[in-house]
Amino acid sequence: MIAIDSMMVCLDLSEIDEKLVAFTRSICERLPVKKVYFVHNIKTYELSDDFRETFGDVDLSKEVEANIADIVAEQFAGGCDHEILVSEEPNTELMMADLVKRYKVKLTVLGKRMSGKSTGALGTKLLRILPCSILVFPETARFNIASVLAPIDFSDASLHALRLSKSLTDQLGLQLEILHVYKLPTQYFPLISEEKAIKKAEEVVNGRFRELQKRHQEIAGVPYLLVRAAGKSTAERIALQLRKGKHGLLVLGLKGNNPIPSLSLGSVPSKLYNMDINVPLWLVYSEEVIQ
Looking at the predicted structure, is the pLDDT value of residue 214 above 80? Predict the structure, then answer.
C-alpha cells in the first residue's frame, strides 16, 4: 500500500497556487498522508528598490504566510495535518532540498504553468536536485484521475515506477496501461525489409514482456502497448499516447545513478516536463536510489 509520511508542496504566489493546494487535498483524500508542508521562499535580493522604498520595514514573511494560510484555509479544508513554511534564502533549490532531508519528505508536489507563461527553469532545477519523488501538476490538469499510463524501457527505474503504478491503481481502483516505445535501426533500410524489422522487433519486445510477467505476477493481467517511435522521440510518442488514451496520470521512473546532477534526470523525463502536457506527471525514485 502506498502511504506518504511527509509531503512538500511548493508554492510561488501565482494563480496556480489555489489549484495546487486543492490538488494536494485530493491526494490526501485518496492516499494516507500524515503531514503536508506548504513551502515558499522569498528571494529578498530580487525585490526592487521601489518596493523597499514603498513598503519599508514590512514583515514580508509574515504577509506571505498569511496569504498562503488564506489559500490553505479555503482549498485544503478537510485535508491532513499541515504546516506553512516561509523562508528568505538566496537559493530556493538548495533550501527545498534541505527541507526534504530535514523532514524526510517522500513526495514533493510542484505546479507547472504552460510554456508561454513561464520558462520552467526553477522546476527543472528542482527535478534535478530534490532527493525525493516529484509530482508535477500542470495548470491545465484535472483532479479526476481514472487511468494511469506507465511507460517502461525495462530498466530497473522504469520497473520500480511500474510496480508503484500497479499498487496505486489497485489501491484507488484505477485502470493501468503499460507503454513501450521501440525504435528500428533505420540505417539498414532498404538492406532489410521494414516490415520484417517491425515484426522481429515486436517479437523481441513481446518476449521481454512475457519474461517480465513471469517474474512479476502482479502485472500479468495489465494491458501493454507497443508503439514504434517512427521518426519521433520517445517523449513525443508518450505524449501522443497520453492524449489518445485519455489517461489522467503519467508515471515515470528516475534512474538517479549519474554522479553529475545536471545529467541524472534523464532525457525522456526532462523532455516531457518541458512539454505542455495536460496531466500530472509523477517522477519516482526508488528508496535505494535516494539513499
Answer: yes
